[in-house]
């Protein structure tokens, strides 16, 4: 189940979290990179061990390796470089997903945030992928091809589809969007 709202709606996340809700435990950042009308994707394993397409995505640590506070914009660009060999010098927040994970009995076991960014000023710095979770070289897809991948469940999961919706909303009207994604475990 996915609920949608614009980021400007007052109290969107507060009304969805409820009393006694588990704290937000982690944040992931997602890089959506455009070039010539295509978007960059990488191949990864999903939770069931199946190969699927995803936008370059990674966990954001609260501090970097030098002990400095980690900013999402730096984390998303660093992750993009490690997973694809491409560097970006700019990142714009275009969407936020509140992710509610549920156990086998249906009760919520955790919550995380996914921050989706459009990364600009792209340059290829290396042809090497330095992340062992990435299977092969990154590839470019048109929006129509990504629609098809989503329809055939060839993307990593609901968060990849949500990031694509955020990108589309941003490209169509310049607005940031938000949603809630419920993931069963």
Compose a concise summary of this entry.
The chain has helices at residues 12-17, 72-84, 143-151, 158-173, and strands spanning 2-6, 24-35, 38-45, 51-54, 57-59, 86-102, 108-124, 139-141, 177-184.
* Sheet having the most strands: 9 strands, mixed
Question: How many E-type strands?
Answer: 9
Strand content: 35-45%
The N- and C-terminal alpha carbons lie at a distance of 14 Å
Question: What general form does the structure show?
Answer: globular
Percent of residues in helices comes to 10-25%
CATH class descriptor name = Alpha Beta
- Given the structure, what is the number of helices? 4
**CA-atom Rg in angstroms:** 16 Å
Would you identify the CATH H-level superfamily? Nucleoside Triphosphate Pyrophosphohydrolase
Could you tell me the CATH topology label: Nucleoside Triphosphate Pyrophosphohydrolase
Order of helices and strands: EHEEEEHEEEHHE
Spans of 5+ residues with little confidence (pLDDT < 50)?
Answer: 1-22
- Overall domain count: 1
CATH architecture title: Alpha-Beta Complex
> Based on helices, strands and strand pairing, what is the structural class?
alpha+beta
If you average the pLDDT, what whole number results?
85
How do the helices and strands line up, and which of them pair or pack?
Blueprint: E1 2-6, H1 12-17, E2 24-35, E3 38-45, E4 51-54, E5 57-59, H2 72-84, E6 86-102, E7 108-124, E8 139-141, H3 143-151, H4 158-173, E9 177-184
Parallel strand pairs: 2-7, 6-9
Antiparallel strand pairs: 1-9, 2-3, 2-5, 3-4, 3-8, 6-7
Written description of the protein model:
The structure is a single chain. With 185 residues, this protein is an alpha+beta fold. Strand 6 and strand 7 (108-124) form a beta hairpin. It starts with a strand and ends with a strand. Helices cover 24% and strands 42% of the residues. The model is unreliable at 1-22 (pLDDT under 50). Strands 1, 2, 3, 4, 5, 6, 7, 8 and 9 form a nine-stranded mixed sheet that branches. The longest helix has 16 residues, at 158-173.
């Amino acid at each position: 189940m996915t609920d949608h709202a614009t980021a400007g709606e007052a109290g969107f996340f507060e009304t969805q979290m409820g009393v006694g809700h588990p704290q937000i435990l982690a944040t992931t950042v997602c890089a959506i990179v455009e070039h010539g009308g295509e978007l960059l994707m990488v191949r990864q394993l999903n939770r069931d061990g199946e190969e699927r397409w995803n936008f370059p995505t990674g966990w954001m640590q609260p501090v970097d390796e030098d002990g400095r506070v980690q900013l999402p914009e730096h984390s998303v660009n660093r992750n993009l470089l490690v997973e694809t060999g491409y560097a970006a010098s700019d990142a714009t927040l275009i969407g936020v997903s509140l992710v509610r994970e549920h156990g086998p009995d249906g009760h919520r076991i955790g919550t995380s945030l996914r921050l989706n960014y459009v990364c600009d000023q792209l340059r290829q710095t290396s042809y090497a992928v330095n992340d062992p979770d990435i299977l092969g070289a990154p590839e470019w897809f048109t929006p129509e091809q990504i629609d098809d991948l989503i329809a055939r469940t060839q993307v990593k999961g609901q968060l990849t589809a949500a990031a694509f919706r955020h990108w589309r909303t941003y490209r169509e009207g310049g607005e940031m969007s938000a949603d809630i994604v419920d993931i069963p475990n």
